[in-house]
Predict the structure.
Amino acid sequence: MTPQRERKKNEMAADHQQPKAANGCVWLWVLLTFIWFAANSSLAAESIVTGALISALLAYMLTRKSDAWRDIRFSPARLYHFIKYSGVFLLELVRANISMMRYVFAPHIDINPGVVEIKTKLKTPVGRLALANSIALTPGSLVIEMQGDSMFIHWLDVKTTDPDETARLIAGPFEHHLEKVFG
């Protein structure tokens, strides 16, 4: 292939990716703005404008520097699964905190800490990041390392060494919905 054809092919590929970047930037801006509103609990004009501007700046910077956000797509089904994921996450967060309270207030702590490996079905970096954060934010587990589709997790009380059962117990509640949202 001649250098001119190669350059033209690269320019066309860059032009083809531009709408993806804009699409990812818009949906990331919407998500960040929603998080801003939820965190501030205010519908004052100053708060809305500040949140929208900060969210737009962050979304632009993140999508400009990383390809991970460019594949975000919107659909009613994805929104539905994101809302379901949020509910599942809150439920698992409460369950994990109650479990930790049992350990803290028990007269004798009987735990079996260890590092386990799980394989995830999630294909996108953002989906894996969301899963890792979901696991890390629930007390009793912490993602130590991610390599490809594997996650190494410090689990406060290892219940099983079977990889499939471990993945079901730790990632199962989140993974189904995150797969529908992020792929």
Summary: The mean pLDDT is 82. The longest helix spans residues 3-40.
